[in-house]
């Protein structure tokens, strides 16, 4: 699959569409899941449960680092703390107001403004080389951007996430196997996403399509990490 690079004007339009969408919600709802286009905290937490399935190979005694792309209001940080994950959290977003809010709420964490779909060399070095990169919901809200531009944004983001990660990445999509459609949302084909990841990232991938959200969740691991976790299976590497 060939993914075209987004032009400067298209990227600017894409960023502005996202900033307008989420900033206006933030003005209306404040520090609330609805500011991030979620219906409620319950469904948001279900997504976090699935996203955090990425950490299934971690031992309880180990500390690992996680960076959340499109961190919004850092609600994932709250979830991880509540469930006792032994991790070092950081986050990035393109919404300045979110980042400023998060810095006040979690001054011990690093937050930065970052569009993850830019060329890799333009990404802040401070957010690179974490163990894991997670993303929840960022790929849903296409708005009025073209399908071609949105897919370019999606796959460039995934490529950069995987390049930065030491161990693995997780992200979600709305599924094409949905009973309703909104032209401002992006619905992905699980087969297309799996095929792209297998061909371009890693063979160590899983997809879960088992929650009542019309969404699916993707986990992609680095080969060296899986090799380390399965020392008795060297002949398969």
Q: What can you tell me about this protein's structure?
A:
This protein starts with 7 loop residues before the first helix and ends in an 8-residue tail after the last helix. The longest helix is centred in the first third of the chain and has 22 residues, at 8-29. The protein is of the alpha/beta class. The chain contains seven helices and eight strands, in the order H-H-E-H-E-H-E-E-H-E-E-H-E-E-H. The chain has one domain: Vaccinia Virus protein VP39 (Rossmann fold, 3-Layer(aba) Sandwich), CATH 3.40.50.
Concise overview:
37% of the residues lie in helices and 18% in strands.
Based on the model shown, name its key terms.
237 residues; alpha/beta; Rossmann fold; 7 helices; 8 strands; globular
Major sheet details? 8 strands, mixed
Q: Count up the helices.
A: 7
* Chain-averaged pLDDT: 94
Order of helices and strands: HHEHEHEEHEEHEEH
Shape: globular
Q: Please give the alpha-carbon distance between the first and last residues.
A: 25 Å
- Given helix and strand content, the structural type is alpha/beta
Fraction of residues in β-strands: 15-25%
User: What would CATH call the architecture?
Assistant: 3-Layer(aba) Sandwich
Number of beta-strand segments: 8
Radius of gyration: 17 Å
CATH class: Alpha Beta
Structural domain count: 1
Low-confidence residue ranges: none
> According to CATH, what is the topology?
Rossmann fold
Q: Could you estimate the helical fraction of the residues in percent? A: 25-40%
What is the CATH homologous superfamily assignment? Answer: Vaccinia Virus protein VP39
């Amino acid at each position: 699959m060939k993914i075209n690079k987004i032009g400067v004007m298209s990227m600017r339009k894409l960023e502005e569409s996202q900033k307008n969408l989420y900033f206006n919600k933030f003005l209306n709802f404040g520090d609330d899941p609805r500011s991030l286009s979620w219906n409620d905290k319950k469904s948001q937490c279900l997504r976090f449960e699935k996203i955090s399935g990425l950490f299934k190979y971690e031992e309880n005694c180990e500390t690992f680092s996680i960076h959340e792309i499109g961190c919004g209001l850092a609600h994932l940080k709250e979830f991880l703390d509540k469930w006792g994950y032994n991790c070092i959290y950081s986050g990035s977003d393109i919404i300045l107001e979110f980042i400023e809010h998060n810095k006040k709420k979690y001054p011990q964490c690093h937050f930065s403004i970052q569009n993850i779909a830019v060329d890799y060399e333009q990404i802040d070095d401070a957010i690179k080389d974490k163990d894991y990169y997670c993303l929840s919901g960022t790929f849903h809200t296409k708005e009025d951007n073209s399908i071609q531009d949105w897919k370019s944004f999606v796959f460039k983001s995934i490529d950069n996430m995987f390049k930065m990660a030491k161990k693995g990445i997780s992200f979600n999509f709305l599924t094409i196997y949905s009973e309703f459609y909104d032209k401002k949302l992006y619905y992905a084909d699980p087969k297309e996403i799996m095929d792209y990841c297998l061909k371009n990232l890693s063979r160590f991938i899983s997809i879960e399509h088992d929650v009542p959200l019309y969404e699916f969740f993707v986990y992609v691991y680095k080969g060296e990490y899986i090799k380390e976790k399965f020392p008795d299976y060297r002949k398969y590497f």
